[in-house]
Structures are given as structure tokens and as C-alpha cells.
Amino acid sequence: MKKAVFLLVLFIGNMTWANSVVWGPTGHRVVGEIAEQYLSGRARRKIDKLLHGESLAVVANHGDDIKSDNRFRKYGAWHYVNIPPGKRYGEEAVSEYGDLVTGIEKCIEIIKDKNAPEEDRAFYLKLLIHFIGDLHQPLHVGRAEDKGGNDIQVRWFNDGTNLHSVWDSKMINHYRMSYTEIAGSYPGMSRKEVKKLQEGNLLDWVGESRKLAGEVYASAEIGEKLGYRYMYDHFGTVKAQLQKGGLRLAKVLNEIFG
User: Fold this and answer.
1) pLDDT score of 22
2) Which of 16, 53, 178, 211 is 20 to 30 Å from 85 by CA-CA measure?
3) What GO molecular function annotation could you give as one example from this UniProt entry (predicted)?
4) In whole angstroms, how far apart are CA 75 and each of 48, 68, 226?
């Protein structure tokens, strides 16, 4: 009986983690909006046809929107990846439910499959746009034991919340700018600067986010009250990650469709 209760609690905890939201609607739209600016002409035309004219920003939250529909429950584990301390991705068996890395790889595989139904390719394109955004929220390459910071309770000004939520949406919402305003607030970059931020592959980006997650965990203590100073110290990192997410999403889409 005790074992059954423990397994039930573990299952509920894992589903809570699977159903957590990343970046929030504004953050995901920023990633989509930035990516749109760096698409090749060929990729833009093919994506426009597949999405029937909807922008990357408009569909960027589809991966979260479908969570309320039990038909899409299997995609819950694709929003994050947990890597044990001292290990690199791939050194341990992947969950039977998949993870953020296998989810992105599967999306790319189906989008590239010209024999796949157009409806399926469009669906997985929307998921890919979302998951590349997820990858750049550091706590989605966080620790399994605290569900990517969801179990680390803190205060945001006078409201109770958790560390994941602070990085997901609290700082972005406190900035009080629309996704188009945030996407348009970055300084211009040379082609060389863009390529520099786009360097690496999927596993390189996983490692980068994982390292950053360690810094995020060290940035706050359980129960700590976070506010203006925390925003001052860390919102630059949030903006940098949103920008990287957008530029790297553009790189992936250009490789698929270009």
C-alpha cells in the first residue's frame, strides 16, 4: 500500500513538471518574432505556406496551448530534459517518454519528411518553434528533484511564487513591454555577430543552458524575497536567452527549409 501511494505521488509530481509552462506567452512570442527576422527568403515562403500565413510568434505557444487536451498528453515530457550531475546528455538512458532533445529531433524528422501529411508537418513545426524556445529557458534543463525550480518557493515582490515562474514569466511581465517591443529592443548585429550566437548544435545548446541553470539555482534561496535587485542582476540574461532562442530557431528552420 505504501509503495502504491509513493508511486502515485511520484507520478503526480512528474506530471506537474511535465505540465509546467516555459517562458510564458510573451517570451515564446519574442523568440518567434526574432526568428522571423532572420529567416531566409526560401524558408519564409515554405513556412508561410505550411502555417497558412500565421507568423512564428502567433504559433509559438501552441506547445503549451494543447496541454489541456488529453490527446496530446504524450508531448508533456518533451518540454524539458534532466541530466544527472556529472553526466552529459546521452550518457544515461533517455526516458521512455522522451525529452526536450528527442522531441526536437522528432519534430525535425517529421517536418523534413515530404511524405508526411501536411497537417502533421505543420503541427510538428509549431511544436519545434515552441521547444527551441523551451531549450533556452535554463530551468528546463534543470534538476529533476525540484522539477526545474518549480518546487523552489520564493517571493516575487510581495507575492508567493517559485523560481521557475520568476524566470518563466515574472521578470518578463514586470518589464511591461509587448513581445514586439522586446524583440525590437535589441541593438543591430552584423552577420558575423549573428553567426557567433548561432554557433553549435542542439547538444551544445543543451550544455549551455544546463550550465546557466546552475547559475540560476545559485541566484536565490528558498523563501527569499526577489524584486528590483534581482531584476537588475538577471533580466539581461533573460533577454540574452530569448535572443539566442530566436536566432537559433532561425538557423534550424533555415537548415530545414532553405
Assistant:
1) 56
2) 16
3) metal ion binding
4) 24, 12, 32
